[in-house]
Specification:
Number of strands: 19
Domain Kinesin motor: 64-406
Biased composition (Low complexity): 35-51
Strand content: 5-15%
Bound molecules: adenosine-5'-diphosphate, magnesium ion
Binding site for ATP: 149-156
Protein name: Kinesin-like protein
Number of helices: 28
Largest sheet: 10 strands, mixed
Radius of gyration: 51 Å
ARM repeats: 654-696, 695-738
Structural class: alpha+beta
Distance between the termini: 83 Å
Length: 867
């Protein structure tokens, strides 16, 4: 710790001792020293896990508390009262040093991260003290800016000046909000603010003074501290923020007047919550429609939640002078409790004590994350120049020196935004449902319209037909009646004529007259008959025409009936479509239910991941493949399930190509997960051809060559072993230098499971007659035998299987006469191991060795070599 050091002024020269107990290499902009670590060039340091801050760099990034000292210019009173005295301090800003005068000839020197003279502008103070913290908050870290010092030395001036009359005088709070507002996008990000006062261990809301007993709530899992009882006001522009500060100041003044306290005895705390969406702002749910909605759209956005805490502490003077203001001892203790507890915590942290008494006061509980926590913290200590306050100034300086020793571990506060993903899904579901209802309604209306139209047409045709029929009937009846009437008239006429003929003959004259009468009536009867004939003809013509008309009407009717029938069939068709739609709706509802359950599963997995991470575990699953794995699991657990087909499709949707491309990902975790997926797929015979066609085999071999990760080697070798069950693939593996790569992997591997996979792959290759020479030539047998150094029975079993396979091919070749001479196996030195393990306890090893021995014996070389 930098403590006072003896310095003497002799022979006109200062001899100041500089007691700084650690090497200093201060970076005037701490941001650069720390920020470069947590952030990659993309500005995002994370793997795609559930809770990122706790994933890879769980320990965080070291970030010491930075301390600047600021000297207030002499005020009017000091100019007069201290006119004859020198300031108690002398600043050397370029050396970042401060000398505290002990007396005229002796002084102590202290180093700070920044030394701000009485001429330092508010702008410079902001840039040096606060800006790096504000930038960290915007990047998703917590940040604290705090002022400590004796009353009247400029804490409020430094932090809280609104600077409305003179913008150059704006303090840190106002400038910080300006920077935050300039950097965020209010469409996707949000800023909210609480403003509080802590006095006598009571927290009061400065935005709502009636709310004056706010409890501190601690999350038992994460240890995060929050004040859910405080007003949280959303900020959208600078003006409303300044208004809010002014309101808070007014309430603070009023409250302190009422309580008969001085504002210098209370702590003012401003909390700014910045929530930012950093990725996938639009990806949570794209505008995909209908049943195209699938898992690939389930990608939650990531949110970063930085919290900036600005603390204007109570005056540091008189910490030990309780009772000086007429308070009772208890009151006085309470007044000073928080500040002295803060001093104790900082001492404990500076000295790396096991116990830090954080729980002793509300202030230290609230600042838990700021000192020894995960926040970037910047402290400005304010001092006055007056030699009369030398004691207070010295104690302030010592506080600052101790605070400089406190190390924090900065952690990114980043997490998946599952809430908005779920909200997005709900909206999409609502849309789907209402779209479906709308379609169904439209269909029903259309069917109703067509039905009424058809009915109208049918009744119109029926009406027309009836009218026409009635008209015809009336017309014929009339014609008929007329002709009957005519005939009757004719008949009456004729009867009258015949009546004359029946008169008795009275004389010759009468007789002759009668004779001539008879003649004429005969003539008229003939005429009558011919007229009747004509009438009859006409009648029959008319009848014919009527019959034709009736026929044409009948055919017209038949035609109408046909069109009615076709109308009916159209209705049937529409009914069918309606039924199909209903089925489709059911299907959609089914899909919706599946999506819901998938969402549930994802959420529960996320919870599980979070829990694991909370427990300090480091297991993680890359987000993109996360759902894929859970799908694969689902598929494996529920064979024959109705969803199987759609799950199987998942690979096609994600795309084998995409999975394979992940094998070359920069992110090693992603690579591991991708190679596991490929290995799982390769275990299914049906997938093997697809994998090889898509270049998977080449990628897997490349992983053996390029990766240094043993997990990757193990899984890739396992996948290759699976692929090597097929003869075509065996040739491909050999053709691509596979045996060499497997040999190197075998030579470097430690893990028995890796060796088992490699041995399995080589054993499969050993069973191919065509590859014997090449396999041996490229060191395959040697590699196989080399693996017996690992005595794991699983590895030995695979080695034995390889040898048996190879021996089988050799004996087959020798029987077919395609090979003569000594066994290549024996030439490569396999025999001693074979003999040694012929009685191995493990039955798989023994069985394979027995087989190998049989084949070698058949080969004929065996006995010979033994002799
Ligand atoms: P504190 O909050 O530490 O009690 P204040 O901020 O209220 O102190 O400052 C006390 C007085 O000193 C105020 O009148 C303020 O305007 C003035 N003052 C403080 N710092 C400076 C400075 N750097 N330059 C000019 N005046 C200052
Ligand atoms: Mg003040």
């Amino acid at each position: 710790m930098a403590t006072s050091g003896g310095g003497s002024y002799r022979n006109g020269t200062h001899r100041n001792s500089l007691k700084v107990d650690r090497p200093f290499s201060m970076n005037s902009n701490p941001k650069t020293s720390v920020k470069s670590k947590p952030l990659s060039s993309s500005g995002l340091r994370r793997s795609s896990t559930g809770s990122i801050g706790a994933a890879k760099d769980d320990a965080g990034v070291p970030g010491r508390v930075r301390v600047a000292v600021r000297l207030r210019p002499r005020n009017t009173e000091e100019l007069v009262a201290d006119a004859d005295f020198a300031d108690c301090v002398e600043l050397q800003p370029e050396l970042k040093r401060l000398k505290l005068r002990k007396n005229n000839w002796d002084s102590d020197t202290y180093e700070f991260d920044e030394v701000l003279t009485e001429f330092a502008s508010q702008k410079r103070v902001y840039e040096v003290v606060a800006k790096p913290v504000v930038e960290s908050v915007l990047d998703g870290y917590n940040g604290t800016i705090m002022a400590y010092g004796q009353t009247g030395t400029g804490k409020t001036y430094t932090l809280g000046r609104l600077g409305e009359e003179d913008t150059a005088a704006r303090g840190i709070m106002v400038r910080a909000m300006e920077d935050i507002l300039a950097d965020v996008s209010l469409e996707t990000d949000s800023i909210s603010v609480s403003y509080l006062q802590l006095y006598m261990e009571t927290i009061q809301d400065l935005l709502d003074p009636a709310n004056d007993n706010i409890p501190i709530v601690e999350d038992s899992k994460t240890g995060d501290v929050s004040l859910p009882g405080a007003n949280l006001v959303e900020i959208r522009d600078q003006k409303s923020f300044v208004e809010l500060l002014r309101l808070g100041e007014a309430h603070r003044f009023a409250a302190n007047t009422k309580l008969n306290t001085e504002s210098s005895r209370s702590h003012a705390i401003l909390m700014v919550h910045v929530k930012r969406s950093v990725k996938g702002k639009h990806s949570a749910l794209s505008s995909e429609k209908g049943s195209n909605l699938h898992m690939k759209t389930l990608r939650p956005a990531i949110v970063r939640k930085g919290k900036l805490v600005v603390v204007d502490l109570a005056g540091s003077e008189r910490i030990d002078k309780s009772g000086s203001e007429g308070h009772t001892l208890e009151e006085a203790k309470s007044i000073n409790l928080s500040l002295s507890a803060l001093g104790k915590c900082i001492n404990a942290l500076a000295e790396n004590s096991v116990h830090v008494p954080v729980r002793d006061s509300k202030l230290t509980r609230l600042l838990k994350d700021s000192f020894g926590g995960t926040a970037r913290t910047s402290l400005v200590i304010t001092i006055g120049p007056s030699p009369r306050h030398r004691g207070e100034t010295a104690s302030t300086i010592m506080f600052g020196q101790r605070a400089m020793k406190v190390e924090n571990m900065l952690k990114l506060k980043e997490e998946f935004d599952y809430k908005s993903l779920s909200r997005g899904l709900d909206i999409q579901l609502d849309k789907l449902i209402s779209e479906h209802e709308r379609q169904q309604k439209a269909f029903e209306n259309e069917i109703e319209r067509i039905t009424t139209e058809a009915q109208n047409r049918i009744s119109e045709v029926e009406r027309n037909y009836e009218d026409a029929l009635e008209e015809e009937r009336v017309k014929y009846q009339r014609d008929y009646m007329e002709s009957i009437k005519k005939l009757e008239e004719q008949l009456v006429k004729n009867q009258q004529k015949h009546g004359f003929e029946k008169v008795p003959v009275r004389s010759e004259d009468d007789c002759s007259a009668l004779t001539s009468n008879t003649e004429s009536s005969k003539i008229s009867a003939v005429e009558e008959v011919s007229e009747l004939k004509k009438l009859l003809q006409k009648e029959s013509l008319l009848r014919k025409a009527a019959e034709e008309e009736v026929n044409s009407l009948k055919s017209q009717l038949a035609q109408w009936k046909r069109s009615e029938a076709s109308g009916n069939s159209e209705i049937i068709k529409l009914r069918k479509m309606l039924e199909d739609e209903a089925l489709q709706k059911e299907k959609l509802e089914g899909e919706i239910a599946i999506l819901h359950s998938q969402l549930l599963q994802i959420s529960s997995e996320a919870d599980e991941t979070r829990r694991r991470l909370d427990r300090g575990g480091s297991g993680k699953v890359p987000g993109d493949l996360d759902s894929l794995f859970s799908q694969v699991k689902l598929q494996q657990q529920e064979p024959g399930n109705g969803e199987k087909a759609s799950v199987a499709k998942l690979f096609e949707q994600v795309g084998l190509q995409k999975i394979l491309s992940l094998l070359e990902s920069e992110d090693s975790d992603l690579r591991i997960h991708a190679v596991k997926v490929v290995a799982n797929l390769a275990a299914e015979e049906t997938n093997q051809e697809k994998i090889v066609e898509a270049g998977g085999l080449t990628s897997l071999l490349m992983l053996l060559r390029s990766s240094e990760n043993e997990t990757i080697h193990r899984v890739a070798a396992g996948a290759i072993a699976n692929l090597a069950m097929n003869e075509t693939n065996q040739e491909l593996i050999m053709g691509q230098g596979g045996i060499g790569l497997l040999s190197i992997t075998a030579a470097n591997a430690e893990d028995p499971q890796t060796l088992r996979m490699v041995a399995g792959a080589i054993a499969n290759l050993c069973g191919n007659d065509k590859l014997q020479m090449k396999l041996r030539g490229e060191g395959g047998i040697k590699a196989l035998l080399g693996m017996v150094r690992c005595r794991h029975p699983d590895v030995l079993a695979q080695v034995a299987r390889g040898i048996a396979n190879f021996a089988k091919c050799e004996s087959r070749a020798s029987m077919q006469g395609t090979k003569t001479g000594r066994s290549l196996l024996i030439e490569d030195g396999a025999l001693p191991w074979i003999v040694q393990n012929a009685n191995n306890e493990a039955s798989p090893i023994r069985r394979h060795i027995e087989l190998a021995l049989c084949h070698l014996a058949q080969h004929g070389m065996f006995l010979f070599s033994c002799l």
